[in-house]
């Protein structure tokens, strides 16, 4: 089926581009190598591929769970894709456990009382029809847990005794995301929440009879509840104000609940509620930023949470029940995630990614606040001291707040030297995501090898800056975020070290839409743009994205079934304004993308070429929403650097 899908996609691409060309349309030069189809992309010079190869050889490691013997699981890449590995001691060897052609994701280790192994998810070719598998460490065997078809199965969650596993699945009708529970001993699975919409399991009660659940509508709207595992009876909890965002939910040992919510606040704060009585209590009220990760120790005596403070992660640990803070060691500055207590509750693991170093796992001994590094990832033999960290800047945009210009945060990476430097503006996807100062080898190559500055803005609609900021681009406010890019171009023009005449834009997914929209609005101020798996028309996107995602995207972009919104989408669609794009464009796409289907790329490529535009097009037949395989990512990265060299550095 995978082969047929890839073949059909490539055939469709060939047929579409083999139609009679409009007058003035440049000739298409196509090269097909395996699953890669490249159009109008010149041969990549060895001086790019050889030097870039070192940057592309960098890799990180992320904490994926503790095993009952005190060793840990990490995910990292030693060949083509991320796989599961075991590490037994600090800086010990990484024992590779899985050896698949497709990446291993969503790894969940069994609790100490459960079996000796872990569950992982895997799809084929980036389709995101993830299937869940059990990896048994004793027998080294792998067992399929889900249906093995075209359902989407995700977020595996063990009960505390390891006897049950909950997960979300579209198996019932392919559209709604239900919650299923599987009995480990019998292998029987059944749906326990089938209310329609997107539901996710958050935590089992300690006796395994109840399950905390969330219905996700959008990034700013979720509904919490509790389901009886045996009967499937669902009880929804009241939401202060009727509508709020909820993320983490965890049962404490005494039956009370810790959770993260933005009820009545701008930011998502950690709260505690005891159903025996009393109002919910804010735990992180003194932290005016989002709480991003929460963990409770198995013995119920410790609580850990991470906060995202202007893009930098901060770790907090409290002793229960009194919530006294524990002394912690100084951690490397960076983005924090994957926090998890060891089975004996004496240690805490955390993944840290810094702007100048890939992700690695650190472990804190809680008794003496000692810090140990468990993994040390490679940087391709490069001199890591040459890596450049960004500066956080804020630039004024078009509207005002409390009588003052609104400012937009951006991470500014400046190359060594005096300039004036060409600039790449890199726009994140989501749109409800947040650009973070994480390690990016491509950015480091631009800085050190091509002397190109990089600006990474968090335009309105980005997460991490409060509820009001998050909502500023919804529905018919969509192009206000594009104006934030125009304001950034204005800011660039005020900087003597930056060359405002040599600016390119880059973005993926929604960021790809932002690239195309920026090129229609600011074509005369840009040199070129790279659109990766981007949206070219919200109406065609909503018609063709997978059914399980459609309502989620309508909540953000607007409902195309409303004639007024549909007309607005038609007005702002880059596809319908493609005649304004006269600067070089590079479009890259995965053929199996379930989120932004390849038709979004095909139609903008065809339209811009029909207007006589210069377009590079890259299609991978074995990828989805992004490029997960190293060979593919490496080729795209090299083509990207050649594109910037040609159009920003004026070098052939």
From TrEMBL:
SUPFAM superfamilies: alpha/beta-Hydrolases, Peptidase/esterase 'gauge' domain. InterPro entries: 6-blade_b-propeller_TolB-like, AB_hydrolase_fold, Peptidase_S9_cat, WD40. Coiled coil: none annotated. Transmembrane segments: none annotated. GO terms for biological process: proteolysis. Residues 1-18 form the signal peptide. The keyword Signal applies. It comes from the Bacteria. It holds the Pfam family Peptidase_S9. GO terms for molecular function: aminopeptidase activity; serine-type endopeptidase activity. The keyword tRNA-binding does not apply. Residues 442-648 form the Peptidase S9 prolyl oligopeptidase catalytic domain. Keywords: Aminopeptidase, Hydrolase, Protease, Serine protease, Signal. PANTHER family: DIPEPTIDYL PEPTIDASE FAMILY MEMBER 6, SERINE PEPTIDASE S9 FAMILY MEMBER. This is Dipeptidyl aminopeptidase/acylaminoacyl peptidase. The lineage of its organism: Bacteria, Pseudomonadati, Pseudomonadota, Gammaproteobacteria, Lysobacterales.
């Amino acid at each position: 089926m995978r082969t047929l899908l890839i073949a059909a996609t490539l055939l469709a691409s060939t047929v579409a581009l083999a139609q009679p060309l409009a007058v003035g349309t440049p000739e298409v030069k196509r090269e097909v190598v395996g699953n890669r189809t490249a159009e109008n992309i010149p041969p990549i010079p060895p001086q790019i591929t050889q030097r870039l190869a070192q940057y592309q050889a960098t890799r990180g490691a992320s904490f994926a769970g503790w095993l009952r013997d005190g060793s840990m699981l990490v995910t990292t890449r030693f060949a083509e894709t991320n796989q599961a590995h075991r590490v037994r001691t600090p800086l010990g060897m990484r024992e590779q456990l899985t050896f698949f052609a497709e990446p291993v994701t969503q790894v969940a280790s069994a609790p100490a009382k459960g079996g000796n192994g872990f569950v992982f998810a895997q799809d084929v070719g980036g389709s995101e029809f993830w299937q869940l598998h059990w990896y048994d460490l004793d027998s080294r065997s792998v067992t399929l847990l889900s249906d093995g078809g075209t359902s989407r199965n995700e977020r595996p969650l063990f009960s505390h005794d390891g006897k049950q596993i909950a997960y979300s699945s579209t198996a019932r009708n392919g559209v709604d995301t239900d919650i299923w529970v599987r009995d480990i001993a019998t292998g029987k699975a059944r749906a326990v929440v089938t209310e329609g919409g997107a539901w996710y399991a958050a935590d089992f009660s300690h006796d395994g009879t109840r399950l905390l659940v969330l219905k996700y509508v959008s990034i700013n709207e979720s509904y919490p509840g509790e389901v009886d595992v045996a009967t499937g009876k669902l009880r929804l909890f009241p939401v202060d104000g009727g509508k709020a965002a909820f993320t983490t939910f965890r049962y404490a040992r005494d039956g009370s609940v810790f959770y993260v919510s933005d009820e009545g606040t701008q930011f998502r704060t950690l709260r505690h509620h005891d159903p025996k009585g009393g109002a919910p209590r804010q735990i992180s009220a003194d932290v005016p930023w989002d709480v991003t990760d929460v963990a409770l120790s198995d013995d119920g005596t410790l609580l850990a949470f991470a906060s995202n403070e202007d893009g930098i992660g901060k770790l907090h640990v409290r002793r229960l029940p009194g919530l006294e803070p524990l002394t912690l060691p100084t951690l490397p500055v960076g983005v924090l995630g994957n926090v998890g207590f060891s089975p004996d509750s004496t240690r805490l693991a955390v993944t840290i990614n810094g702007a100048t170093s890939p992700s690695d796992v650190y472990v804190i001994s809680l008794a003496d606040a000692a810090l140990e590094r468990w993994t040390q990832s490679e940087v391709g033999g490069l001199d890591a001291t040459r890596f450049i960290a960004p500066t956080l800047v804020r630039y004024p945009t078009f509207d005002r707040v409390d009588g003052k210009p609104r400012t937009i945060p951006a991470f500014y990476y400046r190359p060594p030297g005096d300039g004036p430097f060409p600039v790449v503006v890199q726009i994140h996807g989501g749109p409800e995501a947040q650009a973070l100062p994480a390690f990016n080898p491509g950015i480091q190559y631009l800085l050190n090898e091509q002397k190109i500055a990089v600006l990474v803005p968090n335009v309105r609609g980005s997460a991490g800056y409060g509820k009001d900021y998050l909502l500023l681009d919804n529905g018919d406010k969509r192009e206000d975020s594009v104006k934030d890019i125009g304001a950034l171009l204005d800011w660039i023009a005020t900087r003597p070290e930056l060359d405002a005449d040599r600016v390119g834009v880059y973005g993926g997914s929604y960021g790809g839409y932002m690239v195309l929209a920026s090129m229609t609005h600011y074509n005369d101020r840009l040199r070129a743009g790279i659109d990766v798996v981007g949206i070219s028309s919200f109406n065609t996107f909503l018609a063709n994205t997978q059914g399980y995602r459609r309502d989620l995207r309508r909540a953000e972009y607007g409902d195309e079934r409303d004639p007024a919104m549909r007309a607005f989408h038609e007005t702002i669609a880059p596809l319908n304004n493609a005649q304004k794009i006269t600067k070089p464009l590079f479009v890259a796409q995965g053929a199996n993308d379930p989120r932004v289907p390849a038709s979004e790329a095909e139609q903008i490529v065809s339209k811009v070429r029909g207007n006589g535009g210069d377009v590079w097009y890259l299609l991978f037949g074995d990828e989805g929403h992004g490029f997960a395989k190293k060979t593919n990512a490496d080729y795209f990265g090299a083509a990207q650097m050649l594109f910037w060299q040609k159009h920003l550095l004026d070098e052939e």
